Amino acid sequence: MLEQSADSEAMHDEVEMDLSGLYWTPPGEMQREDAHKNLLEAIAGRRPDQVKLFSASAFEIPSAFPAGFFDVAIDMTAHEACGVYRAYRGGNDYATKPEWFSSKLMDTDEIFGEVYDRLMRSGFFDWYFHGGCPGEPVDQSAAANGI
Fold first, then answer.
1. Which of 17, 46, 83, 98 ranks highest by number of CB atoms within 10 Å?
2. pTM over 0.70
3. Three-state secondary-structure class, residue 65
4. What is the pLDDT of residues 101-133, one digit of tens each?
5. SS3 helix, strand, coil % of the chain, rounded to 5?
6. Strand pairing partners for 124?
7. Which of 140, 16, 15 is nearest to 82 (CA)?
8. Do the Cβ atoms of 38 and 97 come closer than 8 Å?
């Protein structure tokens, strides 16, 4: 993209915006009965009073088309978090497999970003949105969960 400098010379914009991927709403607290079974299995054995659950709606960039949800569990005592990407398809409720990671010194927004980044690095969204092949490097149990 070109911009104009103060002395009217054309300048090349060095940073182009990436208009792909997902964005999500601010996270809100979620009740256990609203959590996907994959997230409930991940928090089983942890004390209910130390785990907080959050959810945020996800949308595609740039279309703003609803894409699913990110649901996150944060163990406030152990300073660990995990999350799932969740979508409803054909009347079914599907979610990826959660992975625990250290959430020490992270706020809730950073934790959601980490869940998204981990799924991006795994190749899950390439597979999910662009018809890639599951399991090649995706290790998020997406195929096993019907996504």
1. 83
2. yes
3. coil
4. 999 989 999 999 999 999 888 888 776 766 654
5. 25, 30, 45
6. none
7. 140
8. yes
